[in-house]
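Standup notes
- HV: blocked on the assembly model, inputs below
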Amino acid sequence: MSTFVQRVASAANLNEHSVNPNSHWVNLKGSWTTNIVLIIVFRLVFGVLPWSTPELCWTLTNLSYCLFQYIMFHGIIGTPFEVNQGAYDNLTLWEQMDNGEQYTPTKKFLTVVPIVVFLLSTHYTYYDVPTFIINFTAVLIVLIAKLPAFHRVRFFGINMGQNDYN
Amino acid sequence: MASFSAASPPDLLLAATLEDDDGSQRGLLRTAWDFSFRMVLRYIKNSYKDDPFRTFLEVCLIGFIIWYMTKQKYNIGNNEIELSEKEIDELVDDWKPEPLVPELTDFERETLDKAALLDGPNGTKVRLASGNSKALLNFASYNFLGFIDNPDFEKRAIETLRKYGVGSCGPPGFYGTLDVHMELEKHLAAFVGHSAAILYSQAFTTILSVIPCFSKRGDIIVADEAVNFSLQQAIALSRSKVYWYKHNDMADLERVLQDVNKQLTGRRGKNALPRKFIVTEGLFHNTGDISPLKDLVELKHRYKFRIILDESLSFGVLGKRGAGLTDHFNVDPHEVDLLIGALSYAIGASGGFCCADKDLVEHQRLSGLGYCFSASMPGILAVAASDAIRALESNPEGHFASMRENASLLQSLLKRIPGLQVEGALESPLMHIRLTPETLVRMKRSGGAWTKTDIDRVLAELVEEAQKDGVFLTRAMYVDEHERLLPNSSIRLCVSCSHTRKDIEKCAHAIKNAVSRVTSKKR
């Protein structure tokens, strides 16, 4: 049981005034816009492929966007450059955002967008069951990772990082 | 009006605008609202598709969106208690602020009032600024090689002052590097026998810059318990996991190294190989001991650690040439991964340096905080340091022989004084003297116990008595609350090579008299 789900240690500074240079950019207007533009680009690219049907197109868009969100926000821990003597080394980007504060505007936006993409994709795939299941699973994984109850929780020892703090 | 299922959006819009007579802005807005409303209704109607379960899931998702959007933001970390205005007022009225500068205790006030003020340079003989201008023999300054009162160095320094001015006016990376700095760095590397050297402008902050530069959060440091204050602060600053071993106890060190390696065996991935360092001093400031470098190197190779050696006091003091601990034990300097030295003790200039492999030194040029964000040392001091090292290279025997003779002579004389215990290695010119516990017990009236302040007071009296006999001593001072292992109170003696045999004997005699005078009084 202990390796199935574990909570990871964090030495992060939860002071509301400190700015995390690694995660601050997600709060900017340009990041939000880029999310929308990215979805549109995915849709157009997949639509242009010669063998694509609307179902395949939208399913691929949904899956790509969920994959993008997973890799970006939940799949990688730490910072690419040295920040604060390695305080954020065990945290994913989602956990680093806004100093661990939950329900901030950015987090709300990033939670709602996959759901909206999912609803659009099921509408345009004419609601057949196999694609629905695939899309729903992808959205479910991405949504569960964002819930406050799963802050710093790790499954199967993935992304455990280093738990040795003095 | 067209029915939902058959109409396409443009038709709907056209029909809506045709109906509206005036075609004003308000009308267009209303048609847009109608259009989108009907779009949503059409979507919902289309989406049901005889699958109640799936529709239920989608409705749940939409419900989740609404719930999530309406949540207030909160921080998991700190849950602040909400206080009412009245409670806040009460708390504010109750609060009595502590003074910005705390009240001094009596002993602290005495120490402050009696702090020695020197008139002139702190060479072998000093004059106090207060009262009688009798010259005192200086056994308090770290003037081990007598460079402070060397007239040739003074002359060269004044010439350099005319050429380079006083300060360097900038960090080394930003127009603060002079040619004398680069020469001194090459000179130091060649003198010590290592690959490269980098200069820092202050000796105390050199180690504070070097250790956090290489050892970060998640790395492992194994340090000697008796390291000095700047090393303790450096280790704390680095945020690494630190293990302490008993002072100079190689068996304990081996046990700690084995412990650490055992803890690391289960790790996988990126965390499997953290950086591991052994941190110790060459000549310990708080005890006067020398660390056994040969054993350290052997342990380092066996357990795969790296050595950071703080040679602040041993550079220019130990070894045949004076190159420090590696010279003293005839160990290849490259075995010490980071060799930190100071130019402010024996060499008589100011600042510090770090000798290491070329890559490690280059890394410090961008990541060593003391190097990047402090002004570089003034040109005069770089030239003075260079001259001092050149003097050591040309005439090692002249300096070290007399310094070591003086040191062993003083130690042997002091050991003969009853009631005194001497701490320090045999060859070390820095030693600590304390009153033996038996003497202290004898001095106390029955039923009395010694507090640290009492012992400090006794030592302060000892220093005063020695001053009356013409010898200038000092107590070893610490920032008591911040030391990890506060050493017992002591008087720290520094022997110089420019002391004559008579000076040493005078010092021992003065201490003997002071001890007998001080211990004769019962407290």
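- HV (later): unblocked. Chain A has a mean pLDDT of 84. Chain A touches chain B at residues 11, 14, 16, 82, 85-87, 89, 99-104, 108, 111-112, 115-116, 118-119, 122-123, 126-127, 132, 136, 139, 143, 148, 151, 161-162, 164-166 (CB under 8 Å).
- Next: hand off to the docking folks.
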